[in-house]
Amino acid sequence: MTTMHTVGIRPGLELRVRDAGQGPAVLLLHGAPGPASVTPLAHHLISTGHRVLSPTHPGWDFTTRPEDLDSVAALARVYHELLAQFGLRDVTVIGTSFGGWAAVELVLADQEKRISKLVLMNAIGPEIPGHSVTLPSP
């Protein structure tokens, strides 16, 4: 059964979250095409015994995005609060495209160690200080 939650993160910011399945928790973060773009992956994960939380990024699909939610790091803090409100630990975070960037930021800021695994699918961003990628010569 799928439940749609509206989670109050703080005054002025409510997060729409689809919650379905049972088992180990997965936080599934969508890319620019929106939450519907990860629906097939969510259904697969649910069918293989996972609980999937799939939030809609504030500002997508006619949701409200407060003006102070102005960075990917700020969005990652929203998702950390979501995990805390649900009392989740040992979470696998999967991010596609833009959601991959938010997932990396979330993992980097995870002081409470709620996240155990990170999966990036066609992710964009971030730049991590002290790390660079050198492409081989053709």
Strand order within the widest beta sheet: 1-2-4-3-5-6
Give the class from helix and strand content and strand pairing: alpha/beta
Number of helices: 3
On the 0 to 100 scale, the average pLDDT is 91
Oligomeric state of the chains present here: single chain
Radius of gyration from the alpha-carbon trace, in angstroms: 15 Å
Number of strands: 6
What proportion strand?
A: 25-35%
Terminal CA distance = 51 Å
Q: What sequence of helices (H) and strands (E) makes up the elements? A: EEEHEHEHE
- CATH topology term: Rossmann fold
How many structurally independent domains? 1
- Going by CATH, the homologous superfamily would be Alpha/Beta hydrolase fold, catalytic domain
DSSP helix fraction: 25-40%
Give the helix/strand layout.
Layout: E1 2-10, E2 13-20, E3 25-29, H1 39-47, E4 51-55, H2 72-86, E5 91-96, H3 98-108, E6 115-121
Parallel strand pairs: 3-4, 3-5, 5-6
Antiparallel strand pairs: 1-2, 2-4
Helix pairs in contact: 2-3
List its traits:
138 residues; alpha/beta; Rossmann fold; six-stranded mixed β-sheet; 6 strands; 29% strand; globular
Write up this protein.
This protein has 138 residues and is α/β, with parallel strands linked by helices. The chain has a single domain, classed as Alpha/Beta hydrolase fold, catalytic domain (Rossmann fold), CATH 3.40.50.1820. Helices cover 25% and strands 29% of the residues. It contains three helices and six strands, in the order βββαβαβαβ. Strands 1-2-4-3-5-6 form a six-stranded mixed β-sheet, with helices on both faces. The radius of gyration is 15 Å and the shape is globular.
